[in-house]
Automatic annotation (TrEMBL):
Name this polypeptide is given: Peptide chain release factor 2
Organism per entry: Kosmotoga arenicorallina
Amino acid sequence: KRKKKMKLLGEQKEIAWGSQIRSYVFQPYTMVKDHRTLHETGDIQAVMDGELDTFIEKELLFFAAVEKSDD
């Protein structure tokens, strides 16, 4: 089970500039983009207010697809 979890997490990288999971653009337009799932939204205020459900759903679908492809 631990092996499977480690495979899903992938290679752990050093936390450094440019290794972010999400990017937030406030000007000249608004956008939040998740770099793992490629999900993005222009409703940055909702994300900043904590409405992360769509990002969570996309990540769960992503991990489910990865796990299914390993079976």
